[in-house]
Design goal:
TIM Barrel; DNA polymerase, domain 1; 7-stranded mixed sheet; alpha/beta; 293 residues; binds manganese (II) ion; binds adenosine monophosphate; 7 strands
């Protein structure tokens, strides 16, 4: 159970990934993934194609999302797993979150123009297959293509993070809203990549305890941006808080992402001391669900 190759965090062209849901399903299957979730940012439109392709490949599939949240004046991502993509409350909630992206993208373009980089808004839009979901990643790809930075890491550090020319303050969903929408849709809420946030220990404790108070149940322990120290730390926090543990690559693109779907070649397993989030969905149920739909 703990060694199941579950990849419960990935992105398609419906948000800021570069592969289609169909290509992702094939790649997950080829990499030996045994349970896959697509979790696009604030967007559900990739899920039907992902489920169909996973089903055709005999790959158990879970519908997912990654909701953008503002907590303690910082951006936090909450993954929802096992959601019903047709749930009205979830659909309406994330539509609101997405709506803010257009103005933000224009303002990012304005900020970059002030340092002499013109046409970034148009450039980012041109690289975004889903016009409703323009993200910093699309700006990053545009800026790399322009030659102003060599790679994603550098482009975020120089242009797209707090205090830099392309960064725009933005209010996303509230923590309680994101958890409520996910639960309304029958899903499990998961704190995504906690090792990436720059919180003080007090703020981090508040994130975990408020998340739980809102009905959040799980934490991503093994993920593409976590190093060994993060995995050890969040293993202990999951146990301390009595939370379920999740595992996912956060795959976006074959070149950009540190780890591939299925986390290969890392193959990091969750500690046997943890209860995996997939204990919620018995394998037999996932298989019949996949076959039936
Ligand atoms: P947004 O939702 O538009 O703020 O974009 C957030 C996305 O940018 C994340 O989901 C990542 O894909 C990407 N991202 C954020 N920080 C970095 C970073 N330091 N390096 C590379 N990609 C990043
Ligand atoms: Mn992303
Ligand atoms: Mn994220
Ligand atoms: Mn992600």
């Amino acid at each position: 159970m703990h060694t199941l190759n579950a990849d419960l965090h990935s992105h398609s062209t419906a948000s800021d990934g570069t592969l289609s849901a169909v290509a992702l399903a094939a790649r997950a299957k080829a990499n030996g993934v045994e349970l896959w979730a697509l979790t696009d940012h604030d967007e559900l439109s990739g899920l039907p194609a992902a489920r169909a392709a996973a089903t055709a490949a005999g790959l158990p599939f879970v519908d997912g999302i990654e909701v953008s949240v503002t907590f303690a004046n910082s951006t936090v991502h909450i993954v929802g797993l096992g959601i019903d993509p047709s749930n009205d409350e979830l659909v309406a909630g994330i539509a609101n979150v997405r709506a803010g992206r257009e103005l933000r993208a224009r303002q990012m373009g304005d900020g970059l123009a002030l340092v002499g980089i013109h046409g970034a808004y148009e450039g980012a839009i041109a690289l975004a297959p889903n016009p409703n979901l323009v993200s910093r990643t699309h700006f990053g790809r545009f800026l790399i293509a322009r030659g102003v930075a060599p790679d994603m890491h550098a482009v975020f550090r120089r242009y797209l993070t707090e205090g830099k020319p392309g960064y725009v303050e933005h209010r996303w969903a509230k923590l309680g809203e994101a958890v409520r929408w996910i639960r309304a849709a029958g899903g499990v809420a998961v704190i995504a990549h906690p090792g990436r946030y720059k919180f003080t220990p007090t703020e981090e404790y508040a994130l975990f305890s408020e998340f739980q108070a809102h009905g959040g149940e799980a934490v991503e322990v093994v993920t593409g941006s976590h190093h060994a120290g993060d995995v050890a730390k969040y293993t202990e926090m999951a146990i301390e808080f009595g939370m379920l543990a999740s595992r996912g690559s956060d795959f976006h693109d074959p070149e950009e992402s540190r780890l591939d779907l299925g986390l290969v070649p890392g193959q990091l397993a969750l500690s046997p001391r943890l209860t995996p989030v997939w204990s919620r969905w018995p394998q037999a149920e996932l298989r019949s669900e996949s076959v039936a739909s």
